[in-house]
Amino acid sequence: MGKPTGFMDYERQACVSADPKERIKNFNEFHIHLPKKKQQEQGARCMDCGVPFCQAGMVLMGMVSGCPLHNLVPEWNDQVFRGNWKYAYQRLKKTNNFPEFTSRVCPALCEAACTCGLHGDPVTCKDNEYEIIENAYEQGYAAANPPKVRTGKRVAVIGSGPAGLAAADQLNKRGHHVTIFERDDRPGGLLMYGIPNMKLEKQVIDRKVNVMKEEGIEFQTGVNVGKDVKAAKLLKDYDSVVLACGAKHPRDINATGRDAKGIYFAVDFLASTTKSLLDSDLKDRKYISAKNKKVVIIGGGDTGNDCVGTCIRHGAKSVTQLEMMPKLPDTRSESNPWPEWPRVCKTDYGQEESIAVYGHDPRIYQTTVKEFLKDKNGNLSGIITVKLESKKDEKTGRMVMSEVAGSESKLDADLVLIAAGFLGAEKYIADAFGLKLNARTNVETAPGEYETNVKKVFVAGDMHRGQSLVVWAIREGREAAAKVDEFLMGYTALKVQ
Questions:
Q1: How far is CA 22 from each of CA 19, 106, 124, rounded to the nearest angstrom?
Q2: N or C: which end of the chain has fewer CB within 10 A?
Q3: pTM as predicted
Q4: What is the CATH number of domain 263-418?
Q5: Considering the domain 6-139 in this protein, what is its CATH number?
Q6: Strands (E), 187-293
Q7: Which ranges of the chain have pLDDT less than 50?
Q8: For the domain with range 154-248+423-489, which CATH number is right: 3.40.640.10, 3.90.960.10, 1.10.760.10, 3.50.50.60?
Q9: pLDDT for the residue numbered 1
């Protein structure tokens, strides 16, 4: 808790965003945070609620309420209020390996479940977390702290996204020798190339990776395990292998004209922009450009929104975002009470920028693509859309989105980005290790376990649970690391929460 009456004494003050028309001039982070003293007041708003749902991480009505990492939110809020920043950092790091990432990209499940939010405004947990970790770097608390004793055991971690980094960090702290293999040219996985720079500046990743290197973790980039390095060699050279390769098999759109030139997966579009930005500040032109294009983005989630923001920064002529599902209500319904995750319409930064630049929200709801149109040269010239409605499937009894007869409409487009989610693990890496996949094409394990059907091979993150949040990936990496440690040592000294 913070100050017993803090939630009454101080109003919620969160970080503010730069003006949309100004922030689209670059790819930098655009949030303006409170001064440290003002942030301490926000820590004071954490009440002695007795039942801190903020750290619960439990499933309510199919959605997670509170932090999956079970962060000790009331404890570090209290230390923020008291100005004990070092102790706040120590409490935060007990459960979260990478608050520098989550304080930027997490949707703040903790705040949605905050007791103050029942009748008022929740505590600014995410902003408090940001100030804790950034202060820790400024004061030297977050500097490298290598393990004093090594076990002699060697672990290979495949993939350097949040799950792989978390597993590696935990196992290294235990004293095992850890090598991370990453097929891209830079570490970070999803964090590096899946999330745009304006949400997570890449020097933030580099800063943490450099700390991990100083602590003894080896990074090998540009190495595609399963192709450049055989699985058999890793199994021979290492005492255990952790696969954290993500769910990178994008869901495609099966429609007539799909072979038209000008259709790309969103992940390829975003990655190309980030790489060009890092390599040359976009001067090399080695990216999929939306400049002066009529862009249609298929998918209404976070990735789709990231595409909206990126296209606007490219200088797109227009941006339209197709969302299959109906628009959520603007305010919380009675059937969706606290502390459930609030099912309300969210206007994210990309949509805000579209409203500022083009004068309207880019989203069209209950709509999908029925046909891609091509010109005589095979270039994309437009799409045929169709409206959708919810109907019961007579075979399964489930509600599904079905086409509305006669609702077709033409939409001009010369660039389409598919942001329809991911189907699971890439098959070649699973085949290389001889892994079993489940019906969702994720790597199969026993419930609650991380060891695969191949001895000493473990799996974590999206490759294990399917496409999910960064915070869940960190949780998976921590749990997998504990299982690997137990496998190697006969017991584990690693704490998950």
A1: 5, 24, 25
A2: C
A3: 0.96
A4: 3.50.50.60
A5: 1.10.1060.10
A6: 218-221, 240-243, 263-265
A7: none
A8: 3.50.50.60
A9: 63
